[in-house]
Design a protein that fits this description.
- This protein has no helices and 22 strands.
- The model has no long low-confidence stretch (mean pLDDT 97).
- It folds into two domains: 126 residues, Sandwich (Jelly Rolls); 98 residues, Jelly Rolls.
- The chain is mainly beta.
- InterPro entries: Pirin (IPR012093), Pirin_N_dom (IPR003829), Quercetinase_C (IPR041602), RmlC-like_jellyroll (IPR014710), RmlC_Cupin_sf (IPR011051).
- This is Pirin family protein.
């Protein structure tokens, strides 16, 4: 087993007043030659956006973009006829940028900050027709078990779909739970982000917003040291 440890304090950080952003990988003004990507995972941003503020209309191309609101109200608008769609905690949004798309993302609340993760996964095929989708997920379905949020178009489950053989999961572990994670193959890796709580993998202890990339193994065990919420992203390496 090989591991890459990214503690919360080592992430790139930017405070723009209206936006406080933490970057797990090189992004915008944060550059680290050792933190360009983890396999097909290119971006994992942890953003806090002030009330009524957000990102104006901007383009994307040839990227699978996944947004997971953690608190507040996200509103999305794009040039695919989607006009200020709300995306709430418990829901997940996916957008295949493909040939090119323009969109805007704002905090839909005038009073509450918006907290979210945004994930970029490099696609297995470029220049696809852009598409948008979102779906709600029941918190009860990730209690001490994996909840599949996102999967490949080649799968036949009811998750959201992207143009890459990658999976995005959440799991909420009770204190002192052991969970055995099985990878699809040794050619893949899993990036584990600790949303909250404390856990241990292979004697490495990780706190809130710490992360670890695991690869060159068939499986690993997550040991929860307290009630913990985890995000797991499995990608080709």
């Amino acid at each position: 087993m090989k591991k890459i440890i990214h503690t919360a304090s080592t992430r790139g950080h930017a405070n723009h007043g209206w936006l406080e952003a933490n970057h797990s990988f090189s992004f915008a003004n944060f550059y680290d030659a050792k933190r360009i990507q983890f396999g097909a995972l290119r971006v994992l941003n942890d953003d806090l956006i002030a009330p009524s503020m957000g990102f104006g209309t901007h383009p994307h191309k040839n990227m699978e973009i996944i947004t997971i609101p953690l608190k507040g109200v996200l509103k999305h608008k794009d040039n695919m006829a989607n006009d200020w769609i709300p995306v709430l905690p418990g829901e997940v949004q996916v957008m295949s940028a493909g040939k090119g798309v323009y969109h805007s993302e704002i905090n839909g609340s005038a009073n509450e900050h918006l907290g979210l993760f945004q994930i970029w996964i490099m696609p297995e095929k470029n220049e696809v027709t852009p598409r948008y989708d979102q779906k709600g997920f029941d918190i009860k379905d990730r209690k001490n078990k994996l909840q599949l949020l996102v999967n490949s178009f080649n799968s036949d489950d009811d998750s959201l779909k992207i143009h890459q053989d990658a999976q995005v999961y959440r799991i909420d572990l009770d204190k002192n739970q052991d969970f055995n994670y099985q990878l699809k193959s040794k050619n893949r890796g899993v990036y584990v982000m600790n949303i909250s709580g404390d856990f241990e993998i292979d004697s490495t202890k990780l706190g809130s917003r710490d992360a670890v990339g695991i690869y060159e193994t068939d499986s690993f065990v997550i040991k929860s040291l307290s009630n913990s919420e985890l995000l797991l992203i499995e990608v080709p390496m």
